[in-house]
Amino acid sequence: MLRKAFLGWPAVRQLTGPDHLGRGAAARSPKTAEHVARTETADRVVQSVCPYCAVGCGQRVFVKDERVVQIEGDPDSPVSRGRLCPKGAASEQLVNSPTRQTKVLYRRPYGTEWESLDLDTAVDMIVDRIIDTRARTWQDRDENGQYVRRTLGIAGLGGATLDNEENYLIKKLFTAMGAIQIENQARI
Fold this sequence. Notes:
This protein is of the alpha+beta class and about 190 residues long. The protein has seven helices and eight strands, in the order H-H-H-E-E-E-H-H-E-E-H-E-E-H-E. A three-stranded antiparallel beta sheet has the order 1-2-3.
């Protein structure tokens, strides 16, 4: 028993086996040999774009049992050629973090506690407030009588965790509503 354990030590395997530099089989334990990469067991690979900034680095999203198990750089991407920054490499945490919010939280004016709302109620509240603000702050003409057809009561700030397509659609929506104060975090 003791002899078998001794012969299993990496240094002994290195000296007695063909891997004298200890860079291959000598350094690999039986337990390590049992491990399989998450990318090898994935059911499918989906090509995507990193959501953090406006660069648009390509990502490969590995999915197993309809759950994201790994995200890596896409070597076929002409933008990033398989590389990701630290934020992009950690983007798997966006979907798998145990602290990720998955429901709508609302705190009433002057309230001290958050309460859960269903999505339809939250969307209706947002729409009502947008319509009211636009109606109250609408400017058809400026002080010189020029048509401006705008509202200064609504502004938009796109986030860096949204992808380019989402920010593009938000820009189009806010412009259609007459808002002119529209910015994106990736440009700031």
